[in-house]
Predict the structure.
Amino acid sequence: MNYEFTQNWFNNSGIKKDIQTFINSKNVNKILEIGSFEGQSSVFFSDKLLDNEKSFLLCVDPFFDSGTVNGITTLYVDVNVKNRFINNISKSKNFNKITHNCITSDDFFLKNKITFNFIYVDGCHNPEYVKRDINNAFKFLEKNGILWMDDYLYGNRKQHIGRPKDVIDEFLKENTGKYEIIYKAYQIAIRKLY
């Protein structure tokens, strides 16, 4: 497929290499993606995981322009990123099963009534946002569902405001016994036990 990406972060990710070990494309997959950027993960999910006629992907990304939003610096994002995302998903195999919600994840979770068997969290890396995203995602994750969190080991930023790892580790400690870790490297993934 002739997709247009300016970054290749997703190409070397654990999720791209291993998610099909855990999710069968023939099953009904109800997928939520928090943070889409140019759609590299979105088109991968569309091309590889949405073959069942009842499967779908909900993408949540407000595509704030680069600058500062609520005191948080947003990097790399401008109108061209959103346009590339829309163009890329429109070319994907199961584009008709993708819905984009151009709102913040906080707003999405406030209104959401759907549960998911797979949630990929790669939104704002500010620890407070990460904390809300993973806690909200876990609430809407079905039993045996997978929560895959990007940038677990991301850190050492100049404006050191904490690392996603610290917040994720705290979440894991608070929810001991409710999940099993199925993948742990630069990213981390868990399966919900109940």
